[in-house]
Amino acid sequence: MKKLEPLAWVGPAVLLIAGVVIWPVIEMIRSSFLQISRFGVVREGNFPDNYTKVFTSKDFGDIMVRSVIWVIAVVALTVLISLLLAQLFNQKFPGRKLARWALIAPWAASVLMTAIVFKWMLDPEVGVINLIRRDLGVFLNNTFGIEPSSLGLLGAMGGTSADQLGQASTAMPWLVFVAVFVSVPFTTYALLAGLATIPADIYEAARMDGASKFRTYWSITLPLLRPALTVAALINVMNVFNSFPIIWAMTKGQPGYDTATSTIFMYILKGSDIGASAAMSVVNFGMVIVLTIIFLRVSRWNKEVA
Amino acid sequence: MNIKLVGGAALGLATMLVLSSCGGGGSSGTPADGGNTAAAGGAVTLKMVAADYGDGPGAPNSGDNFWKEVVAEFEKANPNIKVQVTVINWNDIDKQVATMVQNGQAPDILQTGDYSGFVKDGLLHKVEEIVSPNVQQDLLAKFAEFGKVDGAAYGLPFVSSARALFYNKELFEKAGIAEPPKTWDELKAAAEKLKKSGVSQPFGLPLGQEEAQAEAFLWMLGNGGGYKDAAGKWAINSPANVETFTYVKGLVDAGLTSPNPGTKDRKTVWEDFAAGKVGMANGGPMSIPIFDKGAVKDKYGVVAIPGKTGPLNTTLGVMDWIMAFNQNKHPDEIKKFFDFFYTGPAAEKIVDLYKLLPVTNGGITKLSGDEKLKPFLDGLPNASFYPFQDPKWSELNTQIKQTMGGAVKDPAKTLGELQKVAETG
Q1: Number of domains composing chain A
Q2: Among the four A233, B4, B32, B78, which has the fewest Cβ within 10 Å?
Q3: Residue B79: other Cβ atoms inside 10 A
Q4: Would A154 be classed as within a structural domain?
Q5: Which residues from B are below 8 Å from A119, CB to CB?
Q6: Window from A126-135, A156-165, B107-116, B306-315 with minimum mean pLDDT
């Protein structure tokens, strides 16, 4: 009986995990084998029809490739910018407290809200970003005689060129920008915490040995930052891959499926075919696991962190 | 330690129960007092569930307020019948009703967007059991027809909506256009003039996800096309439809429409129209309050939608339903309530309050004096509908919403792909 005692302590947690994590996963996989009506009534098992439908759908390949590019672009940019910001915020400068607080803002605001605000700022008729572009164009033209269109700026509001979210080629960079914007605060803070754990005497020793600033960063800061960096990047990879509100609020994956990632595709499928949507969820689930494994391999988590 | 184990397990179990009851039910706001049988004093209580056409609980135009007044008047006239109305918002009503039905607590009366799902299981009263013949005969025939499954009517059309062309009179005047367009050629000429006078969106074209299926259908109707042909076969890529979208593509390419129509929602276009940035756009009675709040108040007109060779004599009809469940066996009381609703002032009031359209000939006659509503009412008796009774429609609709915008880039390809979805799934 004594042996069972720990169970009393971990039991509730295990049950909770079983109830809110494992059971839904099992249900998800089970649903992907079923034909389910629009009203949620299960009709029959139809494995592997749902999967065939997902894999053979015209846009599936593009969507998966886009999802991977989306994850890599957002996470790489986020980490790069956060490394710089963390370094900056680790210095002592007047107003540092204020600057650190300000950085929290994009993190504290709801992602959906941020995405909607950016969508409005990019509105082709009244968006403030387009207003600035127009005014800048007018200014350049008046002051320097430069034709605004040669710089990609506009002379007028409205019209196709003001509608940046209307085309995949201009919408994607904006989506990535917003995703980076909301991911940077968390990542920066995680890295800041990492920087704080690096003992000052190592830097002192490096200085005594006459190491250059770059060399110090490359050989001391980065390696010692690795645990924080790995965790921050890994959380970002999963978050960004599953990221839904930014794309949904700003483009709904349109035009067509040209800005849709796999999560958006799964959600759109849900509107017409719950079984196929579940199959897509399973694919997504698998993708997250694969991405995570690849990521851990690349960052050699086991060898050097532990 | 035994106690600890049991305690822990109990706690875990309790957590799960709480969790599962949150996930499974979602039926907050459901009256669970079981008052669906005869109440005290021989009075019968009818339980009713209705969708909220207003701005939600607490708003002056909330469904709660509307039904409270209707019920008060009804109960005054019929002291033996009590009606207990639960108003649920559109997002949740289907789920909550499904839960009620699954638990054997179906309401007596349900007002929502679809009735057909309940017919198969034999849950509904037939229409002739629950309204008087004169009410049934007054219903618009084309609408009532859609309330039938295998020849028997189960769904009563409740309210409807339709579409017409809104145009900005001020912008038209500034561009020197004397009359709103009646044909596609006139529409293009007007759009060009609007463009020249500096209007950024001469024609508001929402082919984005919100309601691409409606805008596309209205254009198809203008060329005698549609989603299905006269024989009831899918005809999305029919030559008529391809011609239609080739014409629309011409408008888009000339910059005469909203930019990138495949990403524009109807809401955005209507807001732009309200702000005076759009020359013309298709809209419904529900857009009137939006436009009246904007800069275009009293400066816009409504006409029938232009077709290729002349204005449409039809329009896109959309309707909601009311139905009665047979579980509690109160057809006579329900009949009294429905007759009261359709013949009394209530049907008129809901139409006026929420800018909806009536579904009875009598209702149309009463409203025919309203100039802004006239184009809608004219098209209503001859309305065209989505092929929503086809089981493929729901899947096709999702696909249309997502990809129809492509039809103004490559009409034949996009329509062909949609046709394939309709035919194979």
Answers
A1: 1
A2: B32
A3: 9
A4: no
A5: none
A6: A156-165
Residues of chain A contacting residue B405, judged by C-beta atoms under 8 Å apart = 254-256
pLDDT in tens, B150-169: 889 999 999 999 999 999 99
- Please report the pLDDT score of residue B18 as a whole number: 41
* Phi, psi angle pair for B165, to nearest 5°: -95, 125
pLDDT digits (tens, 9 = 90+) for B337-367: 999 999 888 888 888 888 889 999 988 888 8
From chain A, pick out residues whose CB is under 8 angstroms from the CB of B98: 39-40
Of B259, B394, B395, the CB nearest to A163: B259
- Please tell me which residue, A40 or B214, carries the higher pLDDT value: B214
Contacts of A166 in chain B (CB under 8 A): 259-260, 262-264
Q: When comparing pLDDT for A157 and B278, which is higher?
A: B278
> Looking at this protein, which amino acid is placed at residue B351?
V
Q: Does residue B372 register a pLDDT over 90?
A: no
Q: How far apart are CA A148 and CA A253, in angstroms?
A: 30
The whole domain housing A284 covers 32-95+179-305
For A83-130, give the DSSP string: HHHHHHHHS--TTHHHHHHHHHHHHHS-HHHHHHHHHHHT-TTT-HHH
Q: Are B180 and B301 in contact (CB under 8 A)?
A: yes
In a domain, A66, yes or no: yes
The nearest CA of chain B is from the CA of A123 a distance in Å of 9
Percentage of residues in chain B having pLDDT higher than 70 = 90
How far does A145 lie from chain B, in Å, by closest CA? 24
Pick the range with the lowest mean pLDDT from A57-61, A166-170, B21-25, B320-324: B21-25
CATH of the domain at A262: 1.10.3720.10
Q: DSSP character for B74?
A: H
Closest-CA distance of chain A to residue B87, Å: 20
What tokens does A228 get? 């924080």
Separation CA B209–CA A111 (nearest Å): 21
Residue A274, pLDDT score = 83
Of B5, B200, B417, the CB nearest to A4: B5
3-class state of residue B288 by DSSP: helix
- In angstroms, the separation between the Cα of residue A274 and the nearest Cα of chain B is 11
Q: Beta strand B318-324 with B109-112: parallel, antiparallel or unpaired? A: antiparallel
Residue B272 has pLDDT above 60, yes or no: yes
Full strand arrangement of the beta sheet holding B164-168: B201-204, B278-283, B164-168, B300-303
Looking at the partner chain, which of A2, A8, A256 has a beta carbon nearest the beta carbon of B402? A256
pLDDT tier for residue A195 given thresholds of 50, 70 and 90: very high
| Helices (H) then strands (E): counts for chain A | 14, 2
| pLDDT for B407 beyond 90 | yes
Judged on CB neighbours under 10 Å (0-12, 13-18, 19+), A188 is buried
Chain B (274-333) residues lying within 8 Å, Cβ to Cβ, of chain A: 275, 277
Rounded to 5°, angle at Cα B178 from B175 and B181: 95
Q: How many CA atoms lie within 13 A of A43 on its CB side?
A: 10
β-bridge mates for residue B168, sequence order: B300
Q: Is residue A112 part of a domain?
A: no
Question: Which contiguous run of DSSP H or E holds residue A214?
Answer: helix A213-216
Smallest Cβ–Cβ distance between A166 and the set B209, B255, B260 belongs to B260
Domains along the sequence of chain B with CATH: 40-161+318-381 (3.40.190.10), 164-316+390-424 (3.40.190.10)
The answer to the question of residue A122 being in a domain is no
- Residue B202 contacts residue B256 (beta carbons within 8 Å): yes
B302: left (phi over 0), alpha (psi -120 to 50) or beta: beta
